[in-house]
Write a structure and sequence with these properties.
By secondary structure, the protein is α/β, with parallel strands linked by helices. Helix content is about 45%, strand content about 15%. The protein has one domain: Alpha-Beta Barrel (TIM Barrel), CATH 3.20.20.
Length: about 290
């Protein structure tokens, strides 16, 4: 089974000042991540501004990244939608691309029941033989994938191997981990919140899919790999993590990367850069770090 232990980076999509994908910046960013000890990439997710990319751009970016990484570390690719049949067809159409797993969020906007969520993910699992990581992020989708439903999916769909949990509900995530153990399932729980990484790993999560690691991969790799240093690093970055999400993601992380001279601070509408106040606070915190 694919092991997603450790640090996954939810990779941004850099744009140039004309609003086009900046492949030179992307190339350098991938090198920066891999030289600093990350374990895998998560691409075409929320942080990548995927809804604003055309189908052609998504295909080109995916090919570019997989060629660049060249099987050195796993690549998890986001495939999400609220039309189950269309999503399954999109997944089938992408079979020619190299990828190690799929990240599939709960359907957004139409707010299905737990039965609807189960049947949605069952259909997705049947559309591919690749491993699937569920993605629970109620703040964006409007629906919460409950632990009992996750267990049902894990039992029924053998290629569903993990969940990125970004509900922010620590008690719910702890219950899920307990149910996984009670049912003797080979199923991983991954933190989807930078701020909760240490706490969730202490409870049994296997790592994090991180936004902050775009800019600070070395420290976040240490956080997930060295338990004796984890809390110290979590505390060190607590204020920065708060600022990263103050005006939404990926606005915050793009501001940091821009200050680090790695990318232009460009986003696509409806997303915009952070406010001037937040930018000044980020600059101040970067100097401290």
């Amino acid at each position: 089974m694919l092991n997603l232990q450790g640090l996954g980076v939810a990779l941004i999509t850099p744009f140039d000042k004309q609003g086009q994908v900046d492949y030179k910046a992307l190339d350098k960013l991938i090198d920066f991540q891999m030289k600093n000890g990350i374990d895998y990439f998560v691409i075409m997710g929320t942080t990548a501004e995927t809804p604003t990319l055309t189908e052609a751009e998504r295909s080109t970016i995916l090919t570019f990244i997989t060629n660049k990484v060249n099987n050195r570390i796993p690549i998890v690719v986001g495939f999400s939608g609220n039309n189950t049949a269309m999503l399954c067809q999109t997944i089938r159409n992408a079979r020619q691309h190299k990828m190690d797993a799929l990240l599939v969020a709960c359907p957004y906007y139409n707010k299905p029941s737990q039965e609807g969520l189960f049947l949605h993910f069952k259909a997705v699992s049947e559309a591919t033989n690749k491993p699937i990581v569920l993605y629970n992020i109620p703040g964006r989708t409007g629906v919460n994938l409950l632990p009992q439903t996750v267990i049902r999916i894990a039992k029924e769909c053998k290629n569903v191997i993990a969940i990125k949990e970004a509900s922010g509900n620590v008690e719910q995530i702890k219950l899920l981990i307990e149910l996984i153990k009670a049912n003797n399932l080979d199923f991983q729980v991954i933190s989807g919140d930078d701020a909760l990484t240490v706490q969730l790993m202490q409870d049994g999560a296997c790592g994090v899919i991180s936004v902050a690691a775009n800019a600070f991969p070395k420290d976040f790799a240490t956080l997930v790999h060295q338990a004796d240093k984890a809390q110290e690093i979590q505390n060190k970055y607590a204020k920065m993590i708060e600022l990263l999400f103050a005006d939404g993601n990926p606005s915050g992380i793009k501001c940091v990367l821009s200050e680090q001279k790695k990318i232009s601070n460009q986003l696509r509408l409806p997303l915009v850069p952070v406010t001037q106040i937040t930018q000044e606070l980020i600059k101040r915190e970067l100097k401290k770090l």
